[in-house]
Amino acid sequence: MNTQSKIAIVTGGGSGIGLAIAEKFVQQGIHTIIVGRNTQKLNAAKEKLGPLCEALTCDLDDFAAIPKLISGIIEKHGRIDILVNNAGINMKKEFTDVTDEDFQNVLHTNVTAVFIISREVIRHMLENNIKGSVINISSMASQYGIPKVIAYTASKSAIEGMTRAMATELSPKGIRVNCIAPGFIATEMSAKALNTDPERMGKAMGRTPMGELGQPSDIGAAALFLATDAARYITGIVMPVDGGNSIGF
């Protein structure tokens, strides 16, 4: 893998899957900029990952801040090679209890912000003839029906469609776009959904052939593969990293 001198952005990189992705990148010599709105978490992650990690606080829900974020990174580093769109929010509610505002809030963060940051980074890649890699993060919620997460499901289904559309348009120009659909991974976000719902936990594990929760590092390894020349002929895919959950009975 030719990873030296690469510059990566990982949104939501202060914890969970984002932190695990950033860790894998740093281990391979990729200068990794983690972005999020929790400065304390970001700084703790930077301390853990060392000098190849840089932390930038930015609320991606503030759409006007995103172009400024990207232009600042380019001004400092001269290039962006890899973008991982990991930041996102979830909401567990009965379908009929979801308000218009609830639904829009999830789409705001999980879809529109992803589009805006991708557009800004890809503009830079095209202008500078960079053979870049964009990795979006989806979910099992887009692979099959999961109750009580209608807005999240809609957002992740949109991400998978965006991945295919982006790949078709951008791959001829040298930018690969792929997506990872994590299964049930042992993170703080999944703990909120599963630990208080034994029935849901039982269903999740019952249809996972490997019989255990995945680890954030499993997603990190997949992202590293897709980000580098090891995956140079792969674009437009949605890769389940799920212990077989998406094919389990």
From TrEMBL:
SUPFAM superfamilies: NAD(P)-binding Rossmann-fold domains. InterPro entries: NAD(P)-bd_dom_sf, Sc_DH/Rdtase_CS, SDR_fam. Gene3D superfamilies: NAD(P)-binding Rossmann-like Domain. One of its GO terms (molecular function) is oxidoreductase activity, acting on the CH-OH group of donors, NAD or NADP as acceptor. Coiled coil: none annotated. Belongs to the short-chain dehydrogenases/reductases (SDR) family. This is NAD(P)-dependent dehydrogenase, short-chain alcohol dehydrogenase family.
